[in-house]
Amino acid sequence: MSLLEIKNLHVEIEGKKIIKGLDLTINPFEVHALMGPNGSGKSTLSYTIMGHPKYKVTDGDILYNGESIINLGVDERARKGIFLGFQYPMEVSGVSVENFLRTAVEAKEQKDVPILAFHKALNKRVEAMSIPRSFLDRYLNEGFSGGEKKRNEILQMAVLLPKFAVLDEIDSGLDIDALRLVSEGINKLIREDRLSLLLITHYQRILDYIKPQFVHIMVDGKVVKSGGYELAQQLDKMGYEWVKEE
Amino acid sequence: MSTSPVEPVENVLEQPVDSKYVFRSKKGLNEDIIKEISSRKQEPSWMLEKRLASYEIFKKKPIPKWGPDLSALNFDEIIFYIRPEDYKSMKWEDVPDAIKKTYDALGIPEAEKKYLAGLVAQYESEAVYTNLKKAWDSKGVIFTDMDSAVKEHPGLVKEYFMTKCVPAADNKFSALHGAVWSGGSFVYVPKGVKVDIPLQTYFRMNTKSSGQFEHTLIIVEPGAEVHYIEGCTAPRYSISSLHSAVVEIFVKEGARARYTTIQNWSTDVYNLNTKRSIVYENGIMEWVGGSMGSGVTMLYPASILRGRGARAEHLNIAFAGKGQYKDTGAKVILAAPDTSASIISKSISKDGGKSVYRGLVRIGSNATGAKAHVECQSLMLDDKSSVDTIPIIEQFTPQSSVGHEATVGKIDEEQLFYLMSRGISRDDAVALVVRGFIEPIAKELPMGYAVELNRLIQLEMKGA
User: Fold this and answer.
1) How many Å lie between the alpha carbon of B439 and the closest alpha carbon of chain A?
2) pTM more than 0.90
3) Which one of A46, A179, B207, B447 has the fewest CB atoms closer than 10 angstroms to its CB?
4) Hey, is the C-beta of A154 within 8 angstroms of any chain B C-beta?
5) Rounded to an integer, what distance in angstroms lies between the CA atom of residue A17 and that of residue A220?
6) Chain B within 8 Å of A103 (Cβ-Cβ)?
7) How many domains does chain A have?
8) B421, A160: Cβ pair inside 8 Å?
9) Does the residue A29 lie in any domain?
10) Domain at A55, CATH number
């Protein structure tokens, strides 16, 4: 059975049609890349999969492990193992990264998590990811650099261990060193925790680090072309105009 | 907060009520009641005279017309003095269910519940308090209830009690307070003495430390330091519908005082207080306050910075739930050169609650080099609630600076979406954002209080 199956999806935001009949199937342990020009609806798709209330599904369906999720709340989807890595993670003042992570783990496990044991495990986790411990005491994303915010997204994923993640332009605003660190974090999750992934990106660059088995190109609310890794390389050489012209 | 093992609540509550103690406190106010209060307390005549003079002022003063509507406040229906024996006539069954539930949710020990519920005037002291008291005594620190101070330290009380800080004539409610005050704390810290453990009224629940018209007088002599903590996070049930306390704090040259309070009266109470400090040269006054309960609250702790280099910091959080009107803020008068003040005021409104920040910063004409900064943040959790900000800034010398920032906003849906995308339920996400919002104030509270404040806010969020 497919992990995620999107069938003839139509999505509107404030009456404006953004996604117009999109189909996409992702099987367990697959890595897919979704590319496309600005305004093609990539971010809308990621928000819709997560269940943002502003995005209205007007037709079609999203199945996760064979069950429709379009009527589930955001938090319910997350607890089923879906994760969204944000292009612009929100800042929450006064809430430390550690406190936030513990609250999230408690929500996922639906039980209290002992503070001390969690603290120890989390410290090990950040060390393994070469993140300074002081990171955990800072308020969630407040005053974080672009790179720190993205690394925080990966840290959250590493702690919550979702089955399926959509990463929305996780590479935007990263310099080459940060991109390498973020990619390493993601690769480890793919390799060791068998994460399935939909990687949304503008640029081929990140795909040098995280190799997708499948590449899809989205234009004007639809997937217009799908292929293997070579499609991304072709796209890099020829640009989106080539797809649009076809 | 911890507690010592004391008699289970049932034993006290089930005591047979002696017929001569049946609750019959008089409502309304007249000279006879004031005389009765004074004579029951066996006060010296000068205090009775002070009370009667205050009563004369009270009769003449009008009810404040600005701020919340106080027209429903009927002085003829209020019980101004609750005699110790009256407590015995109250029963646990008389305490509203909502309050009982909150006690349970907060895990308040049985013995403490009945104190908080106003069923007993006395509460077993903790052994720890006795030891602390020895240490304070040896340094000359006085920490006692106000009634005892009148008898034991008449010189200090005569000099400082409602004279230069909050005179009876200050406002209608300070005048009323002057006439009927009862209970409260007296703190005296001699020159150069630094009290390292906070003085908490909680230690002294066994004495008459609290009530509807409690008076707190704190004198911190030059170079001395003290942290005084009053109140309790758990809701307090009151037989009377009016609570009007006065707090007076004197921070002498180079001294430092911090006054921390969390108030949580039951929601039928008018909470109308006057709290003020006078700060002398290079003194530091810090106010940390949380206002949770009551129906109508008017509370604007004031700092009068009288000496060069004096400093005031005000941190305040107010929570306005259903039917609550919080009119709170701060008042700082910078009356000397190089004085400085910082005010951070936060409010949370929910279920139709109303919160108003009302503040005054006045920089006097001789306060060259004075600096003040005001920050108000209001968070509305729904469309039914409302907030207002009334910051008044008066700057009488150009060689000074004042900054003011105000943010009013509804809870950010994108923040909630982000938190919920990690599996956190909407309610828990809202609670997390709110906790983050109050964190700058919660972190200034002693650990136990901060934990309780957070739990209490979570309960309020769930509408408990």
Assistant:
1) 5
2) no
3) B447
4) no
5) 10
6) yes
7) 1
8) no
9) yes
10) 3.40.50.300
Tell whether the model's pLDDT for residue B219 goes beyond 60: yes
pLDDT tens, residue by residue, A167-190: 999 998 888 888 999 999 999 999
Closest-approach residue (CA) in chain A for B436: A94
Q: Does any domain span residue A231?
A: yes
The partner residue sitting opposite A75, judged by closest CB among B423, B433, B437, is B423
Cβ–Cβ under 8 Å, residues A81 and A162: yes
Q: Do B414 and A90 touch (CB under 8 A)?
A: yes
pLDDT per residue over B35-70, tens digit each?
A: 988 988 899 999 999 999 999 999 999 988 888 888
The pLDDT assigned to B204 comes to: 40
A199-228: burial string, b at 16+ Cβ within 10 Å, e else: bbbeebebbeebebebbbbbbebbbbbbee
Contact of B447 with chain A, judged by CB distance below 8 Å, is answered with no
Domain ranges of chain B: 1-214, 418-464
For B200, the 3-state DSSP assignment is strand
- Mutation site for B-interface testing, chosen from A47, A77, A92, A93 by largest number of B Cβ within 10 Å: A92
Residue-by-residue pLDDT tens, chain A, 246 positions: 899 999 999 999 999 999 999 999 999 999 999 999 888 999 999 999 999 999 999 999 999 999 999 999 999 999 999 999 999 999 999 999 999 999 999 999 999 988 889 999 999 999 988 899 999 999 999 999 999 999 999 999 999 999 999 999 999 888 888 899 999 999 999 999 999 999 999 888 899 999 999 999 999 999 999 999 999 888 888 888 777 765
8 Å CB contact of A107 and B418: no
Give me B318's structure tokens.
């107010």
By residue range, what is the domain housing residue A37? 4-87+196-245
Cβ contacts of B435 on chain A, cutoff 8 Å: 94-95
Indicate yes or no: CB of B421 within 8 angstroms of CB of A84: yes
CA angle (B67 as vertex; B64, B71 as ends), nearest 5: 60
State the DSSP code for B125: P
Burial class (CB in 10 A: 0-12, 13-18, 19+), B265: buried
Using DSSP, state whether B280 is helix, strand or coil. coil
User: CB A95 to CB B435 under 8 A?
Assistant: yes
Nearest C-alpha of chain A: how many angstroms from B28?
Answer: 47
Q: How far does A157 lie from chain B, in Å, by closest CA?
A: 9
How far does CA B318 lie from the centroid of its chain? 12
Interface of A with B in 159-198 (CB under 8 A): 160
Residue B201 has a pLDDT of 66
Q: Cβ(B460)–Cβ(B275) under 8 Å?
A: no
Which own/partner pairs from B68-77 qualify as long-range (CB within 8 Å, at least 24 positions apart)? B68/B296, B68/B298, B68/B325, B68/B327, B69/B296, B70/B270, B70/B272, B70/B296, B73/B241, B73/B242, B73/B270, B75/B28, B75/B29, B76/B27, B76/B28, B77/B27, B77/B28, B77/B241
The verdict on A143 touching B (C-beta cutoff 8 Å) is no
How many beta-carbon pairs below 8 A join chains A and B? 78
CA distance B419 to chain A (A): 8
